[in-house]
């Protein structure tokens, strides 16, 4: 210690002070009797005391004094050991000690208790402190490295006692985390001097050496940032090392390491591997315009990163060796953050005649002016924008307030606080406040004097009305600066005008400002408040960094928007996040009594009694009391039941009736999920009918795009699983929000849980979490198969799981297998009216004639056999098929029978079309329904008496290693076939005709793999991220059947590539596409379409890809038929794209439909043009659903209508721009891109000389990143005709990829190099001057300067897109519109001047 903080111990002082000695005896006696043991052991304390004395006096002096005293004399005469306060602060000190101050500081900051680690060094002690902090939500504890003493303090830190060592360590640690505060004023004199002297000097030295991070107010945030920065730096180093290694591989012998004047070895090895890659060109006029934009708007080193001086010097030398002037390189190094950016800056800013020749094309002439204005207006606008306000807002405010910067700042702040208020009202209020100035005593000056005394060197006052305080918070090594401007009006009755200057995103800066002002408005008005605001920001900034809040809260400062649009968006958000009233479980409320009374009256009606008798015949009715008892006693229960048992229709009614009878009707709110829309619709109709009510009253439904229910009135709501997931997803993000989203729901019934769909498994994870936190919440799982063990084990962690098993109906079903069917139908492989010949054929011969695939003639003959067997009896036939194409072919085969009423049933049909399967057939006809597996469960077609089961299903399988999806027709599981069979016995004994053998059935899987193991997980992972989950892998590991880790990792990587996730956080684009119920690539296309003025085209393309191409590919494979089909297709569009051909075909069909063309003429037109009328209607239905989704997320106005051009505004101005559409498709499908490799050019002699021949289609090769060479699918327009490939096309985007004998790509769209550069993956500039690399695998040859221009322009476009996605109501104008216009021209003209 530098000074003696207390009276000496262990010997007489040099100048004895009797009063102090007497006082110490009196104050610090321990009040205990002296015992013999203590007296005997007094020599030991005396020895310790001597040791302590050494630390407080010169060594020789202390030694002589201690040596001159006899032990007995010391024991008797020495003063008693002082207490800690006197030991640390001296006898007169009554204040707090360093340990107490540090503890209080930690407690105030909500950190853990300081942990003191100490050790003994000879006769002295040393200590250091370890701080920790526990996250209250995750309970994760972050422990910092010890605050060890720097070399300058090691000697001072050695103390004679452990107590003193702890206090010294506490003082130093407190300085490290609170050096900007005047904490030393509360410390003992010794530590006060240390704080102002040695500690402060040490801090100044550290700051000069770039170690300012050591003195951050929030050491935990600083530690996390440094660790993250280290990780990023390590990755960057690794990346640079790989680049250098690759460069070495490319540089062959004969190529020098220096490139002055562009001189390489004579063999030109610099371009090895780059000679055959596509080349990018840039017209002179276009190049000049791009350069002008970049010089004007480009931002260099946006985060103000500083290079290490040693590394900077090395980089300067390296770059200078490339041929740049060293003075230019040094200038660039002061501005830029790394080597790559330095070279880019030089290539843009160095005059052309001073650039190395390797960086320019031959004959390059640019001559771009660097002139820029630095007027007062621009300076003021830039200062206003430092707070985070958008530049255009600052311009508007500055000009609107007559060029007064202070008034403009006040206007912007008022607009941020009150975004819905009219700008004219804000301006008038500001004018009124200006007039009222000077009416009261000005307290501004008094507060400024106080602030200057408190903050000392951290405070500055540029003008009388402005002050700046460098706060005790740092980001990227720089302090956040708080600036306060004297308000217009009487301060402190009016809030000051504040800004935060920091290298953090604008919306976070605005969020801090807004939250601080809201807090000040509620707590500080009427008293000087600047100190309190600064203190509040310092305490809360860290939390705001991590959770800035909703973008809409600060959107008024981020973008210029029409007030009506902004108000609508705000109202929409308020509506989405509306507070749901918790359930009132008090019995006998007025509402519950009213519901009970109405229910009792209803039970007495004849219609209800008749319906009750029908319900009582179901097997579920017998277990009514058991079901109710189990539901009431368990949070989770499983109801298993065979098909026809009534579990889906009756269980929910039993629960509701029980609640009503117990006078809890008001509390009842039951949601029942169904895997398909038709199931939700059918069950809602059936249950409403059984309760003698209308759908939408007591019983309702919600499906995508359609809803019938009344809040507070509807007690049972049937929904698709996706609808309930969406409700949870938009709840707000956190786990608390997810729980709150169902706070008004009493029961959730998950039906058909055995199907194990992706949505169902995801929902079960969320429901299990809700059950843990809400004990009054009930979940009922309903399964058609008796495999409840796996679900019981999953939910056991919540509590006991109840189980109820319901027997099915007793109607018998007779099975006929393939050999039986062939025998009954006398089928011989082809249709014949004379079956006499077939009777003598052996069954084995007939079976061979059936073949291995689905035989539609056999299906037709089986239907005819069933019809003959039934005769005059009623009853329908249900045929199970794998897909819609098989349904169409089956219905076509059945058209030969005039007495059949044939209907399709699959998920793509509109709800009204799906409902056509339920009513009886017209008189004299027999109903035949051809269905996919949607008819297996949930829905009941009452009059079915015979089932024809092909035993086939179309199932998706996914290989995460190769990122390959296969949709293949395969055998259904035995469980699924059992469900299909049960459909024949719903009303009476029936028959099941199985078009497969008993041996095939024995080899079927017991049940299918859960969908979570069979499909790509991008959509699921995005949904999980949208709900605020940070660790997606850990979350999905809690699923009933966790997916493969490689599949999750691949999905996260894909989300990063498409721009939905950045730095493990959801981007604005990611948040939007997570809310659109479509494939992620299609969602991105819809967002791009709305942004770039081709919304209708994007809607149609997305809808076609959701359904399928409307063109009916001919079954005949002869060349003449194929050529005719290709001719018809190409007649719709010469834009050389599968998707654009489909788009133009749909547009022509839609135009005919809008003109009122009759249905017959429309069908005839479709037939002539080889188009499927049903598919075109499916596309129209999908378009409506996607349009509704875009309106729901407020991406387009709710008034928008496809059929009303007056509502289109700028959304469709580029619908016919084919090059732009191709580029947007490529950007949406990225990384599903293949490179086109044309064969060597061949020429034919002609009259005017040699003419280049078009390459044959089979000689064109395609390569992607994952599979190498891929092949065009025969269904593509590019398969046969190479002339369908645009001359500028260098790449193709594909939507799907499948593997059979080869890897085929489908739904192809060719596009040029600028489409790739502007809308696809990440661009890297090859600093050896060879060109660009996109997504680390696609090379584009081009000169270095052009490469940098394109890369920088892409960055500017990305910012425009980000803002547009963040604020859909923003009209792209001004400088941003210029960027979009230049990009559009580049894509349209492939970089050339038009």
UniProtKB/TrEMBL annotation:
Bias-annotated ranges (Basic and acidic residues): 38-57, 235-251
Enzyme Commission identifier(s): 3.6.4.13
Bias-annotated ranges (Polar residues): 60-75
Stretch list, region Disordered: 1-92, 235-270
Top-level enzyme category: hydrolase
Protein name: RNA helicase
Gene Ontology, cellular component aspect: ribonucleoprotein complex
Organism: Lojkania enalia
Domain annotation RWD: ranges: 446-544
Domain Helicase ATP-binding: from-to ranges: 628-804
Keyword terms: ATP-binding, Helicase, Hydrolase, Nucleotide-binding
Hydrolase keyword on record: yes
A UniProt-annotated Pfam family: WHD_HA2
Domain Helicase C-terminal positions: 858-1028
Molecular-function GO term, any one: ATP binding
Keyword ATP-binding: yes
């Amino acid at each position: 210690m530098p000074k003696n903080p207390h009276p000496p111990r262990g010997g007489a002082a040099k100048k004895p002070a009797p009063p102090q000695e007497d006082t110490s005896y009196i104050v610090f006696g321990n009040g205990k009797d002296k015992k013999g043991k203590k007296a005997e052991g007094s020599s030991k304390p005396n020895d310790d005391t001597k040791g302590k004395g050494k630390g407080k006096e010169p060594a020789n002096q202390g030694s002589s004094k201690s040596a001159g005293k006899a032990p007995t004399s010391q024991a008797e005469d020495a003063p008693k050991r002082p207490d800690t306060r006197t030991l640390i602060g001296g006898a007169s000190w009554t204040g707090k000690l360093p340990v107490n101050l540090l503890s209080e500081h930690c407690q105030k900051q909500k950190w853990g208790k300081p942990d003191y680690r100490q050790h003994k060094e000879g006769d002295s002690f040393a200590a250091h402190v370890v701080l920790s902090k526990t996250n209250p939500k995750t309970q994760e504890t972050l422990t910092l490295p010890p605050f060890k003493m720097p070399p300058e303090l090691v000697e001072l830190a050695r103390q004679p006692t452990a107590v003193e060592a702890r206090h010294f360590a506490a003082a130093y640690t407190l300085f490290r985390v609170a050096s900007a505060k005047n904490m030393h004023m509360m410390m003992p004199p010794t530590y006060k001097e240390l704080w102002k002297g040695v500690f402060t000097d040490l801090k100044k030295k550290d700051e000069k050496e770039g170690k300012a991070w050591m003195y951050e107010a929030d050491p935990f945030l600083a530690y996390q940032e440094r660790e993250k920065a280290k990780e990023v730096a390590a990755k960057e180093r690794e990346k640079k090392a790989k680049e250098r290694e690759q460069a070495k591989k490319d540089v062959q012998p004969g190529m020098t390491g220096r490139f002055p004047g562009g001189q390489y070895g004579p063999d030109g090895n610099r371009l090895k591997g780059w000679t055959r890659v596509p080349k990018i060109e840039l017209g002179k006029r276009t190049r000049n315009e791009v350069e002008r934009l970049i010089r004007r708007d480009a931002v260099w080193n946006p985060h103000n990163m500083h290079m290490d001086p040693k590394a900077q010097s090395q980089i300067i030398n390296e770059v200078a060796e490339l041929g740049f002037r060293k003075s230019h390189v040094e200038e660039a190094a002061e501005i830029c953050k790394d080597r790559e950016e330095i070279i880019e800056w030089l290539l843009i800013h160095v005059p052309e005649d001073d650039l190395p020749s390797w960086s320019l094309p031959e004959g390059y002439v640019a001559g771009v002016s660097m002139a820029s204005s630095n007027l007062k207006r621009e300076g003021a606008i830039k200062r206003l924008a430092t707070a985070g306000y958008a530049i255009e807002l600052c311009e508007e405010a500055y000009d609107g307030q007559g060029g007064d910067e202070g008034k403009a700042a006040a206007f912007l702040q008022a607009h941020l606080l009150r975004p819905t208020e009219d700008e004219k009202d804000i301006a008038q209020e500001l004018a009124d406040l200006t007039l009222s100035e000077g009416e009261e005593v000005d307290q501004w000056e008094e507060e400024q004097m106080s602030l200057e005394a408190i903050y000392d060197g951290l405070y500055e006052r540029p003008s009388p009305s402005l002050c700046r305080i460098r706060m005790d918070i740092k980001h990227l090594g720089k302090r956040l600066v708080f600036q306060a401007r004297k308000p217009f009006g009487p301060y402190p009755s009016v809030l000051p005008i504040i800004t935060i200057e920091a290298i953090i995103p604008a919306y976070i800066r605005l969020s801090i400002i807004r939250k601080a002002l809201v807090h000040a408005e509620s707590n500080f008005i009427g008293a000087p408040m600047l100190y309190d605001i600064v203190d509040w920001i310092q305490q809360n900034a860290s939390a705001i960094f991590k959770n800035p809040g909703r973008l809409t809260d600060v959107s008024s400062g981020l973008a210029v928007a029409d007030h009506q649009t902004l108000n609508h968006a705000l109202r929409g958000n308020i509506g989405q996040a509306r507070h749901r009233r918790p359930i009132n479980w008090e019995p006998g409320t007025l509402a519950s009594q009213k519901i009970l009374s109405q229910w009792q009256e209803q039970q007495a009606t004849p219609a209800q009694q008749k319906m009750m008798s029908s319900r009582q015949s179901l097997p579920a009715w017998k277990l009514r009391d058991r079901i109710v008892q189990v539901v009431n006693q368990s949070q989770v229960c499983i109801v298993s039941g065979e098909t026809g048992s009534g579990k889906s229709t009756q269980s929910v009614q039993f629960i509701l009736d029980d609640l009503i009878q117990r006078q809890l009707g008001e509390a009842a709110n039951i949601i029942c999920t169904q895997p398909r829309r038709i199931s939700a619709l059918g069950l809602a109709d059936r249950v409403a009918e059984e309760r003698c009510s209308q759908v939408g009253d007591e019983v309702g439904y919600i499906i995508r795009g359609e809803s019938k229910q009344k809040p507070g009135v509807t007690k049972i709501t049937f929904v698709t699983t996706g609808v309930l997931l969406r409700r949870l997803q938009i709840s707000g993000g956190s786990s608390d929000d997810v729980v709150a989203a169902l706070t008004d729901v009493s029961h959730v019934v998950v039906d058909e849980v055995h199907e194990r769909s992706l949505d169902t498994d995801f929902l079960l994870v969320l429901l299990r979490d809700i059950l843990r936190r809400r004990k009054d919440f009930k979940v009922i799982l309903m399964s058609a198969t008796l495999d409840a063990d796996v679900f019981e084990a999953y939910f056991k962690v919540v509590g006991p799981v109840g189980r109820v098993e319901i027997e099915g109906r007793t109607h018998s079903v007779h099975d006929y297998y393939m050999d039986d069917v062939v025998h009954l139908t006398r089928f011989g492989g082809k249709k014949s009216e004379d079956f006499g010949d077939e009777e003598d054929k052996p069954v084995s011969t007939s079976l061979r004639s059936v073949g291995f695939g689905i035989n539609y003639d056999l299906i037709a003959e089986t239907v005819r056999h069933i019809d003959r067997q039934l005769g005059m009896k009623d009853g329908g036939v249900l045929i199970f098929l794998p897909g819609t194409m098989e349904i169409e072919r089956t219905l076509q085969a059945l058209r030969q029978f005039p007495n059949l009423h044939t209907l399709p049933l699959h998920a793509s049909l509109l709800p009204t079309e799906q409902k056509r399967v339920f009513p009886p057939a017209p008189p004299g006809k027999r109903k035949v329904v051809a269905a996919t597996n949607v008819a297996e469960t949930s829905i009941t077609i009452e009059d079915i008496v015979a089932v024809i089961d092909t035993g086939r299903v179309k199932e998706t399988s996914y290989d995460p290693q190769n990122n390959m999806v296969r949709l293949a027709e395969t055998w259904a599981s035995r469980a699924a076939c059992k469900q299909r069979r049960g459909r024949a016995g719903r009303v009476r004994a029936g028959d099941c005709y199985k078009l497969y053998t008993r041996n095939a059935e024995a080899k079927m899987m017991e049940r299918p793999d859960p969908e979570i193991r069979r499909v790509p997980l991008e959509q699921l992972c995005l949904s999980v991220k949208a709900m605020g989950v940070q660790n997606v892998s850990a979350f999905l590991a809690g699923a009933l059947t966790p997916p493969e880790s490689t599949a999750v990792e691949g999905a996260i990587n894909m989300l990063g590539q498409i721009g939905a996730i950045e730095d493990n956080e959801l981007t604005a684009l990611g948040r939007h596409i997570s809310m659109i119920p479509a494939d992620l690539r299609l969602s991105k296309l819809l967002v791009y379409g709305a942004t770039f003025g081709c919304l209708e085209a994007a809607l149609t393309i997305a809808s076609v890809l959701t359904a399928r191409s409307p063109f009916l590919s001919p079954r005949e494979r002869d060349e003449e038929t194929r050529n005719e089909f290709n001719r018809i297709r190409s007649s719709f569009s010469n834009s050389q794209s599968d998707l654009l051909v489909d788009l133009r075909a749909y547009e022509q069909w839609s135009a005919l439909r809008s003109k009122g063309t009759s249905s017959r003429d429309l069908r005839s037109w479709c037939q002539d043009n080889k188009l499927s009328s049903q598919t075109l209607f499916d596309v129209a239905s999908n378009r409506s659903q996607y349009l509704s989704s875009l309106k729901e997320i407020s991406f387009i106005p709710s008034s928008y209508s496809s059929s009303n051009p007056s509502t289109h505004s700028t959304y469709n101005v580029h619908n016919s721009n084919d090059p732009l559409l191709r580029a947007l498709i490529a950007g949406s499908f990225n990384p599903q891109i293949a490179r086109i490799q044309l064969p060597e050019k061949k020429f034919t002699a002609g009259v005017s000389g040699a003419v280049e021949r078009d390459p044959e289609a089979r000689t064109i090769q395609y390569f992607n990143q994952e599979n190498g060479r891929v092949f065009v699918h025969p269904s593509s327009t590019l398969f046969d005709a190479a002339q369908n490939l645009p001359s500028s096309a260098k790449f193709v985007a594909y939507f799907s990829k499948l593997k059979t004998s080869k890897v085929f790509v489908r739904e192809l769209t060719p596009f040029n190099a600028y489409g790739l550069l502007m809308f696809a993956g990440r661009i890297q500039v090859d600093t050896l001057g060879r060109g660009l690399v996109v997504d680390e695998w696609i090379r584009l040859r081009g000169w270095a300067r052009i490469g940098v221009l394109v890369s920088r322009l892409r960055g500017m476009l990305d910012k425009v897109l980000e803002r547009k996605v963040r604020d859909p109501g923003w009209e792209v104008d001004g400088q941003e519109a210029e960027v979009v216009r230049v990009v559009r021209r580049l894509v349209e003209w492939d970089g050339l001047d038009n």
